[in-house]
Amino acid sequence: MNEVRKPPVATTGIIGWLRINLFFNWTNSLITLFVIYCLYQFIPWILDWTIFSADFKYNYLGEQITNQEMCSRNLDPENGGACWAVIYVRFYQFIYGFYPKVEVWRVNVAYVMLALALLPLLYAKLPYRKYFLYFTYIFPVIAYFLLNGGLGFTEVSTNKWGGLLVTLVLGCTGIALAFPIGIMLALGRRSKLPVISMMCTLFIEFIRGVPLITLLFFGMVMLPLFLPEGIDMDGLVRVLVAVTLFQSAYMAEVIRGGLQAIPPGQYEAAKSLGMSYWRMNLLIILPQAIRISIPPIVNTSIGLFKDTTLVIIVGILDLLGIGRGTLADTNWLGLSYEIYFFVSLVFFIFTFGMSRYSLYLEKKLKTGINMGAD
Amino acid sequence: MSEESIISLKNVNKWFGDFHVLQDVNLEVKKKERIVVCGPSGSGKSTMIRCINRLEEHQEGSIVVDGIELTGNLKNIDNVRKEVGMVFQQFNLFPHLSVKENITLAPIWVKKMPKAEAEELAMRQLEIVKIPEQANKYPGQLSGGQQQRVAIARSLAMNPNIMLFDEPTSALDPEMIKEVLDVMVDLANGGMTMIVVTHEMGFAKTVADRMVFMDEGKIVEEASPDKFFNNPESDRTKLFLSQILHQ
What we know:
The complex is a heterodimer of chains A (374) and B (247). Chain A has helices spanning 13-21, 26-52, 72-75, 85-89, 91-96, 104-122, 129-148, 164-189, 194-208, 212-226, 235-260, 264-272, 277-307, 319-328, 336-366. Chain A is mainly alpha-helical. Chain A folds into 3 domains: 9-75, no CATH class; 87-99 and 161-365, MetI-like fold (Orthogonal Bundle); 103-155, no CATH class. Chain B has a 6-stranded mixed beta sheet, with helices on both faces. In chain B, strand 4 (60-65) and strand 5 form a beta hairpin. The longest helix of chain B has 16 residues, at 174-189. Chain B starts with a strand and ends with a helix. Classes of the chains: A mainly alpha (374), B alpha/beta (247).
């Protein structure tokens, strides 16, 4: 009588999954077949173009490629796919810009250190995580001296920086600085003191109401006018200021959204335990608000990382800028597919990484915690 | 009388916009006294006890708690809040912290207690509310009754002289009400000064030294439980009691 009944076979396992998700009814089946057909047409073609028929360093005659005329697809239009040799030849510029070759080890060290600094953020269970975190905090200072010079290192002017180096410097600094500034702005905007709240609101609304390009021009042209005479601000720093201001305004609104989701009872409980404004916010309110805001925080961060490409208009050559410069070179005319494909791929790797990281964070922070009232 | 009062409200008035929520409220509470406040919803009873630890600001009159007058002075407010613990209808536990962390947080950060000592204290408080086995769980994993008992333990960990309870059992399922009330009865028997806003008349009869009945922002009647339940003076109280006792 009490026999344990198994679910019908066709709803479990691979076949069940297929039935439920791909062949649920005849429209569903038709769409599935159509998509399979499209993939069948597209995948072999893209694989052939990017890998099997592509040139990497040598063309199909076995010669080393030094300009676009030697690409297989230009020698014989019937034969040959992508000509990745352009990336190979210009790789140094893509990664370091015009950084002097003798000093480039410093950039490499900075890249490795960046990876080390991110490690404790990526893996909560890292052994000796505390010490890695200390390193993360001092990393910006080390990176500044490494890349820029000083403390015995030869100075390398920022107008020699370029490519991925500039993209990462702008992206990482912008995101890292905008986070605390954004938190302060968000708290300020919700402050009961009218002067503080008005100033923060004005700042946020002004920055949000202006396109990033305008801010970049503002940083390049106007910022020096506000500085006392004799102080010359580095071009990259000016752009960084603009990018950070822009990002912190967006970050502030995202975090304010999280703050608004915290029930008033949390504030009351914290106050009734005798906590001051700052303790209440740091220990009770912000940890919850930031947790709620992780998806939009990562969203705006990804947005900023891509928006850094706009610096090209004020003459700074980031990854995309180097790509466009290469395209303007007569040696490599006409290789826009390869170059844009490569630039997109690099951006995709970083932004996809951020997106996965946010999913991981959401999962990690949710374990064992039920934020709702069941 | 006022010398031995630990809480003293004199002619307290408060408005929410145009709504006159507290009208000339006067209340004296002596040390170790247990007061139960009841009244229909919207009568201002929650607002009154929330004024006592300044979660709400009164606009006229004076409130003195343990010799400290509540004014705009932030230092005074902090000092009063250290003396006064509060338990809320919705528990208001911190969902991102474990039960133990919920309790140790304020002792560590407000009282600067060393972590080990605070954890010992937390375990002692959890013994008192009879759920030491839940120490490492998160609030979301507990039942309502357990959450409210953690909230009580969290308040007690700050070693307050006065405890305020704002409808502590109103958000609970019926079978969990008793476990929370039992803890509150223990607390009352231990000599804590308590002001409890509740509709649990059984609890009121057992522990209250004095009943306070509020309606439309005023204290309508103040009496011993015996007199309040058996021989109330005002018609409003009689009506309220007949409704609440015969539902």
